[in-house]
Amino acid sequence: MSEATPFDSIGGEGAVRALVDAFYDLMELEPRFAHLRGLHPASLEGSRDKLHWFLCGWLGGPDHYVERFGHPRLRARHLPFSIGIRERDDWLACMAAAMEQVQVPPALRARLVGSLANTADWMRNRGQPA
Fold it and tell me: What distances in angstroms separate CA 13 from CA 31, 42, 56, 83, one per listed residue?
């Protein structure tokens, strides 16, 4: 029998959507994430959908993002945005808070935060060490 994917462990597509909605709700409501919110478009609907589609596949579920847009090319798609240490840390803090809010199991949360931290650091395009 195969091991459950993180997608399965988190609770499937509905749970991923709840996580994404919690993430963007926190970004809109929490003053500590105002800077991060300011980097996004006025309407977050497209951002919500894209992150949901991406995370479904990244977690081992359906590849909705790839089906719609092809390979994610995360770094290339984010190059137009100034992403430094503050943006990386704010994004990670917001996602960690969202995971806690929707009650992602602690062991899975720690595993996901570790993986997301590596990706978020790779996304930085300013403030790089010389």
Answer: 29, 25, 7, 28
Residue that has been written with the tokens 């992403």 in this structure: 83
What dihedral do alpha carbons 98, 102, 77, 43 form, nearest 10°?
-80
Q: What is the CATH number of domain 10-123?
A: 1.10.490.10
Q: Is the model's pLDDT at 130 over the cut of 60?
A: no
3-state helix, strand, coil in the chain (%, to 5): 70, 0, 30
**Which amino acid belongs to residue 69?**
F
Say how far apart CA 58 and CA 35 lie, in whole Å.
Answer: 26
pTM above 0.85, yes or no: yes
Q: Where are the domains of the chain?
A: 10-123
pLDDT of residue 117: 95
Q: CA-CA distances (angstroms) from residue 89 to 29, 96, 125, 126?
A: 18, 10, 14, 13
CA 69 to chain centre: 17
